[in-house]
Every structure is written in C-alpha cells, then in structure tokens.
Design the sequence.
C-alpha cells in the first residue's frame, strides 16, 4: 500500500478536513530461530518483515476515538472520558483499545482522533499481527501528541504489558520488540533477560527466505500457549529446589535429566534449553557465512518443537516435511507460537518456483488446504510514513 492510496481510503472513510493526516507503518516479524525461549529468559533471533500494518490518523475536536480497519467489518468507537474494558464483540478493536486504556493509566493526555488501519499481514498466522497492531497504535498516539524521540525498548515492553494484562495472552517480549526495533536487512539477536541486543546482517544472496502460510487458523492458541508457559514454570520450580536459578535457560541438560522426572515437563525443558543453544550456534554460522549449517539448525529446531514442545501439529509438520524434500531447500521450521500459522524455509533462488509449486501441490493433496507463500524482505521497525 502506498501513502497516497492510504490517504484516499482514509478520506473515503472519514471525509475531508483541513487538519493534517499522519500515516504510519509497523511490520510483522518472523522468528528465524529461538522459539519459546523469550518466556524463559533466553535468546531469540527474529527479523521484522516487509508485510505489516499501515495506519492513517487525524485528530478530532472531541474525546472520541474511532478505530476502523479495512480488514474487518466492525468499527470500534470509544470515548476517552469513559471506562474502557475488553469486550469480546470488539474483536481486533480490543488491541488498540487496550493501548488507549494503558496510555491513559500512565497519565498520557490523549485527544480524540479517527484512525484507519490496513494490513497486508495475514491475521493470526504467527507473523505477529497482534504485536504489530499494538506497537503501531502506541507509537502513533505518542507521535501525534508531539513526541519524536520514542524509546522503542520501553514501547515494546509497554505493548507486552497490554497484551498480557488487557488481552490476557501471557506472551513474551520477542514480537513487540522486533516490531518496534526491526532494521532493514538485519535480524536481531536479543537476550530476553538483559534485553541487550545486536543486529546481525541477514542477506542470503543466493537464497531466499520463504514464508509459508499453512492457512490453518490457529485454534485455542492462547490457552495452549499459556499452558506451555505454566509447564516451563513447573519445570523451573523443580530445578530451583537444587540450585537458585532465575529462569529455565540457566539450567543445564544434565540438571534437567537428573531432577525433572515428569516426562512432559522434562521434554518441555529439553526443548527450551537446546533451542537456546541453537540460537547462538545459528548466529555464529550465519556470521561465518555457513548457510547450510544454519539450515540444519532450523530443522533441529522444528523437530524439537514437534517432539518435545509439541506445538507444531499436522499442517506445520506437513509443510515443513514437504519443503525439506525439495532440492535447494536447505532448512525449514515453524515460526512463532505454532499450532498452525506459518513456517519458514531457506531456499536457493534458482529453485524457488519449483519449490513453491511442488510444496503447494503436495500440501494441498495431503491437507486439503491451499498454502500461501511470501518471499519476504526484512524491513525497518515501526515508523512514520508522512503527513499531509
Ligand atoms: C508468540 C509469543 C512470543 C514467543 C513466541 C514463541 O509469538 O508472542 O512471545 O513466545 O510465540 O517463540
């Protein structure tokens, strides 16, 4: 979507006025490796992508905020002088509403405004559409209120609070962080305990990063996500009886094997600890230009998420297995929370067409759904686009 089209759509929705219209973009993200490590004090290695959500916004002279999305039917209208609460029927509108609720709670002086959202990021597909919407909304409110030096780390953590407490998904910091801090052509190595991070150049040259949407809508994701988080906490509590560690990533595999006797908890902890080690190895292999080894680590990550963490499911396993059969595909894995949604593959540029055709046909035959493919660019984090 270009800025002019967005402005036209905004005027079509809200009408003309002499006041300026501001436009913004927030990306989605893929996680290259490091799944479910953020909630266990470990490393993640995500990158923000060129698919994302756009917003156009114009101030009003009253206390009303209108949220309209071109991707949804319902318009959500709130009044900032009234009590705001999560409402099932507001659907996607609860995300920007949650931002308003928490900004007001923190003492921000908000003004009424009209907002139009448009996203080319598939919804609920594991590419962080929620974090993108949250970060975009928080950023735009602060921007139109005159702030220009917006602290992206604080912004990410604020949005995580909203998702945890208003939306009630007990997610980690990875998604909000990468949407806020993404950088063109770079992935981010983030230590989720210290919040120190490093940009790692990610240009594959002879390969492309393919995002594969299984088109299996994630179901019960929130409750299963929260359940995995609790299991990790239970494993941590057992390990803490023997050594005062702060998080699961600080435990060794030896300790897990010795002390965590419950099979489910042991497998969850095994995934987290080995995945955390894989992140650091993956960054090293990339820095050394060893793309094949990077691909192997992706495959190991998927296997661990399938066997030990159990968050993949039929559709993600099918698309990953079919991908790995194609010559030219050097690695593939699910990305994000799992239970459906998207997988990623690193594929030689020359094999791309063949790859998409064969994987798509096989997946369709075996699952009965048509997958979507996107060859992703890696883009900057949330940013203003312009003002007219
Ligand atoms: C979701 C959460 C993240 C992270 C991933 C799994 O995307 O929002 O915090 O836990 O799942 O790695």
Sequence:
């Amino acid at each position: 979507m270009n800025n002019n089209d967005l402005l036209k759509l905004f005027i079509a929705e809200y009408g003309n006025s002499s006041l300026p219209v501001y436009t913004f973009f927030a990306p989605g993200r893929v996680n290259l490796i490091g799944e479910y490590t953020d909630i266990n004090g470990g490393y993640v290695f995500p990158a923000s992508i060129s698919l994302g959500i756009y917003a156009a916004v114009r101030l009003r002279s009253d206390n009303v905020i209108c949220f309209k999305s071109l991707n949804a039917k319902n318009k959500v209208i709130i009044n900032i002088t009234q009590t705001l609460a999560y409402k099932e029927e507001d659907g996607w509108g609860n995300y920007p509403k949650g931002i308003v609720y928490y900004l007001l709670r923190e003492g921000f002086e908000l003004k009424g405004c009209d907002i139009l959202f448009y996203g080319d990021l598939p919804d609920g597909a594991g590419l962080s559409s929620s974090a993108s919407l949250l970060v975009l909304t928080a950023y735009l409110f602060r921007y139109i209120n005159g702030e220009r030096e917006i602290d992206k780390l604080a912004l990410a953590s604020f949005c995580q609070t909203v998702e945890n407490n208003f939306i009630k998904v007990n997610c980690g910091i990875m998604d909000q962080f990468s949407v806020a801090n993404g950088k063109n052509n770079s992935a981010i190595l983030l230590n989720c305990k210290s919040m120190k991070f490093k940009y790692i150049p990610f240009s594959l040259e002879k390969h492309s990063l393919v995002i594969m949407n299984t088109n299996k809508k994630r179901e019960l994701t929130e409750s299963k996500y929260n359940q995995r988080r609790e299991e990790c906490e239970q494993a941590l509590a057992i390990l803490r009886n023997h050594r005062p560690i702060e998080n699961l990533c600080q435990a060794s595999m030896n300790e897990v094997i010795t002390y965590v006797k419950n099979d489910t908890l042991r497998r969850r902890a095994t995934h987290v600890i080995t995945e955390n080690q894989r992140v650091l190895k993956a960054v090293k292999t990339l820095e050394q230009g060893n793309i094949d080894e990077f691909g192997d680590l992706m495959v190991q990550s998927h296997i661990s998420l399938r066997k030990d963490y159990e968050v993949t499911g039929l559709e993600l396993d099918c698309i990953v297995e079919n991908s790995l059969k194609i010559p030219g595909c050097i690695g593939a894995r699910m990305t994000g929370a799992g239970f459906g949604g998207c997988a990623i593959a690193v594929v030689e540029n020359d094999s791309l067409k063949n790859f998409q055709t064969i994987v798509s046909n096989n997946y369709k035959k075996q699952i009965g759904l048509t997958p979507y493919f996107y060859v992703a660019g890696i883009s900057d984090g949330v940013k203003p686009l312009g003002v007219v």
